[in-house]
Write a structure and sequence with these properties.
Rossmann fold, 7 strands, globular, S-AdoMet-dep_MeTrfase_Alr7345, SAM-dependent_MTases_sf, Methyltransferase
Length: about 240
């Protein structure tokens, strides 16, 4: 008599990464500190889910220190382009130039260009294959960012993309039904709010990867708290601009 089937794996299942993404992750130009973070951030799986290909035109919306910017640069290669889009609100708040400027000045990342503008404005010099934002969508709802009008931001993203282009949003999970309650205090957002706002701009929801899901996260702590930082439950939503 056969016993019960084995339980499904609790962690993310390893996948074979496209060659361009695997090469980008192992590129020796990446800081060692970034590579250490890969085990928690799963950038290979995230970029594979987004469909990043050589020659792609990508916007990294609110790139922070450039963790993903560097990976995008190598993944799209010399025929591709990466626009690191930095809202002026953040530059004024930090009272220093964006950290990503140093990446754009580095000849190793010659396909990176920094764009400074004020939200909700968003755009690029050419049509894009992908607009990507990681752990920052919630911040655009916060006071220090205006707050930005996300209805306008998402419509601008829609216009900036090629037909069939992808908008990928990655952020920290807040309790279901909490709406925008935790964006200022815990730096989390209800995924349902993001889905509704983005789809209202004309996007089609294409699905999610659960590679950053963590059911053990109680969702009650600020994402910067030492006990949960780097281990928060995060959603990765993929939206697509209709091809016609």
């Amino acid at each position: 008599m056969m016993g019960p089937p084995p339980p499904p794996p609790s962690g993310p299942v390893a996948i074979a990464l496209p060659a361009n993404i695997a090469a980008a992750l192992s590129d020796p130009s990446r800081p060692a500190a970034d590579m250490i973070r890969d085990k928690d951030r799963h950038p290979g799986e995230v970029l594979a889910f987004a469909g990043v290909k050589s020659g792609a035109k990508v916007a990294d919306l609110i790139p922070g220190g450039g963790y993903f910017t560097r990976i995008f640069s190598k993944a799209v290669g010399p025929k591709g382009k990466v626009y690191a889009y930095v809202p002026d609100e953040l530059t004024k708040l930090a009272k220093r130039e964006p950290a990503v400027n140093a990446i754009a000045r580095d000849p190793v990342y010659s396909n990176v260009q920094v764009i400074l503008n004020t939200l909700p404005n968003f755009g690029a010099p050419e049509k894009l294959d992908l607009v990507f934002t990681a752990q920052n969508y919630h911040d655009m709802h916060n006071k220090f960012m205006g707050p930005a009008n996300l209805g306008v931001v998402n419509r601008q993203v829609f216009r900036a993309l090629k037909p069939g282009g992808v908008y990928l949003v990655l952020d920290h999970v807040a309790d279901a039904g909490s709406g925008l309650r935790d964006t200022e205090t815990l730096h989390r957002i209800d995924p349902a709010v993001v889905k509704a706002e983005v789809m209202a701009a004309g996007f089609v929801f294409e699905g999610e990867t659960r590679v950053l899901r963590n059911p053990a996260d109680p969702r009650a702590a600020n994402v910067y708290d030492a006990g949960i930082r780097g281990k928060t439950e995060q959603f990765v939503y993929k939206f697509r601009k209709p091809a016609r």
